[in-house]
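Incident log, structure service

09:12 report received: a user says their structure output differs between two submissions of the same chain.
09:20 pulled the input from the user's history:
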Amino acid sequence: LLGICVSKLLANSLHCRVYFGAMINDLNELQQKGLTVSTFTERLYFAFVLIASDNLAAHHLAGFQKNFNNGHFCRMCYVSYEYKSIPLTNISFLLRTEISHEIHLKQVLQSNISICGINDTSDLSNLIAFHPVKSLPFDVMHDYSEGVCMITVNSILKAFSARRILTYAQIESRLEDFKYGQNDESNKPPVTKQ
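09:34 re-ran on a clean worker, output below:
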């Protein structure tokens, strides 16, 4: 863990520069000069690989739009919100590249408006080997556990009902009878729709 802070403090761009500036300097120094450890005979050099964060934090760090319900909401491709529900087999979209990102970022900085979901330069743009398009992987908990898994389970339950393995009434009954733990009590699944 390199750092932790309350996200509302990072809403101020000056606070961001101060907060991330020291980290960027330290990480760049470790990458360029390395570190001497008494148990090794040679210097250890470090390489920056990625930043783990949730989707909202990743968008903030990268300089992307900070909402997911309009425009170009994906930091990996240029799909727009109006096409989000179309199956991937029925749509073609461009992946973001470092080159295309830099072209759009230049336009954003010249016009002072959001373009293709890019709002501003990344707070981490001075970190060696960092790029908003390649250094911020997806957040598995949001994308799978709260997104894809929910859709998949719902599809399986619908298939069970269609094949008469379980009725919707049986599914609902089992959900109602299930004993949720104290931490899961507020996360009960929605009613299964026919």
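09:41 both user submissions now match this output. Likely a transient worker issue. Closing.
09:42 reviewer note: The chain is about 40% helix and 0% strand. Helices lie at 13-32, 55-62, 98-111, 140-162, 168-177.
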